[in-house]
């Protein structure tokens, strides 16, 4: 641990400016760094192998943060190979995203071994044998984070998503995922139809979650272990291009008068049906 004993009290400090700037996707991508708040997420990141660049501690909370990490997660922050800074309470409270901050903000490097940009030149060999969930244009970071959490809970191996979906490194996505994003393989495509073509070329069926006249009722057909499903935008659903690229459309049966579900809720139902029934105890 590279620890400075001086308390930072200037909002113009380069590390304070770095953390503040990581609220912007542009700055995250330029620096290949992202930030998140709280002891649990910090310890989840460490446990999942994320490489921390910086820990920012709130003045007066240093001991409590280190003790909680040690007692609840068996992690010694003193042993980390990263820079650790303490900032004044006033500076910290302006940086944090939390309503009730625990006194630590972490900055980690992009997980390039887990999260990868793909195109149609990728042969998809890594997908063989994996449970895969696809997303098109899911724009709300909290929905994306919640979907990642659901996918992790029910044994999905990889999420494949369009590049115009919410950034997985948005702090809201990380928080909503409850840290599962650190351990989830995520592939991003400019054109998600490229991924669908790769999967179908492997002999896999890809189901589009969409309500049209040809859609089949979820639970009314026999599933294959290699099946995949794709979920669309919160307001507009899946594009016609994506629907036409898939094998079949599938709908979630609901009570009369209810038109749709939140994207994360729909994902939970679909992921359970396609992947989760043989998961866990």
Describe the structure in your own words.
With 281 residues, the chain is an alpha/beta fold. It has two domains: 2-109, 60s Ribosomal Protein L30, Chain: A (2-Layer Sandwich), CATH 3.30.1330.30; 116-276, Alpha/beta knot (3-Layer(aba) Sandwich). It is 33% helix and 22% strand. It is built from ten helices and 13 strands. The chain has helices at 14-21, 25-31, 39-47, 62-73, 89-95, 141-153, 171-176, 192-201, 240-245, 263-276; strands at 2-8, 33-37, 52-58, 83-87, 104-109, 115-118, 132-135, 158-162, 185-189, 206-209, 216-217, 228-231, 248-251. The strands form two sheets. It has an eight-stranded parallel sheet with strand order 6-9-8-7-12-10-13-11, with helices on both faces. Helix 6 runs parallel beside helix 10 (263-276). The protein is elongated. The chain starts with a strand and ends in a 5-residue tail after the last helix. The mean pLDDT is 94.
Topology:
Blueprint: E1 2-8, H1 14-21, H2 25-31, E2 33-37, H3 39-47, E3 52-58, H4 62-73, E4 83-87, H5 89-95, E5 104-109, E6 115-118, E7 132-135, H6 141-153, E8 158-162, H7 171-176, E9 185-189, H8 192-201, E10 206-209, E11 216-217, E12 228-231, H9 240-245, E13 248-251, H10 263-276
Parallel strand pairs: 1-4, 3-4, 6-9, 7-8, 7-12, 8-9, 10-12, 10-13, 11-13
Antiparallel strand pairs: 2-5, 3-5
Helix pairs in contact: 6-10
């Amino acid at each position: 641990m590279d620890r400075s004993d001086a308390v930072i009290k200037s909002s113009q400090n380069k590390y304070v400016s770095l953390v503040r700037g990581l609220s912007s996707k542009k700055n995250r991508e330029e620096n290949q760094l992202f930030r998140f708040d709280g002891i649990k997420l910090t310890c989840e990141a460490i446990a999942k192998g994320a490489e921390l660049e910086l820990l920012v501690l709130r003045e007066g909370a240093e001991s409590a943060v280190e003790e909680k990490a040690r007692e609840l997660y068996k992690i010694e922050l003193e042993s980390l190979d990263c820079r650790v800074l303490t900032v004044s309470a006033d500076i910290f409270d302006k940086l944090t995203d939390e309503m009730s901050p625990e006194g630590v903000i972490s900055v980690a490097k992009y997980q390039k071994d887990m999260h990868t940009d793909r195109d149609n030149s990728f042969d998809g060999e890594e997908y063989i044998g994996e449970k895969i969930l696809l997303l098109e244009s899911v724009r709300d970071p909290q929905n994306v984070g919640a979907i990642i959490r659901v996918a992790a809970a029910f044994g999905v191996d990889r999420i494949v998503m369009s590049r115009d979906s919410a950034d997985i490194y948005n702090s809201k996505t990380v928080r909503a995922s409850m840290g599962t994003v650190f351990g989830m393989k995520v592939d991003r495509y400019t054109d998600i139809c490229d991924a669908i073509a790769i999967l179908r070329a492997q002999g896999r069926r890809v189901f589009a979650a969409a309500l049209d006249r040809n859609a089949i009722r979820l639970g009314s057909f026999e599933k294959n272990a290699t099946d995949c499903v794709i979920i669309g935008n919160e307001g507009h659903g899946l594009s016609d291009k994506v629907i036409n690229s898939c094998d079949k459309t599938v709908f979630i049966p609901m009570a009369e008068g209810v038109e749709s579900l939140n994207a994360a809720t729909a994902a939970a139902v679909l992921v359970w049906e396609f992947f989760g029934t043989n998961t866990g105890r």
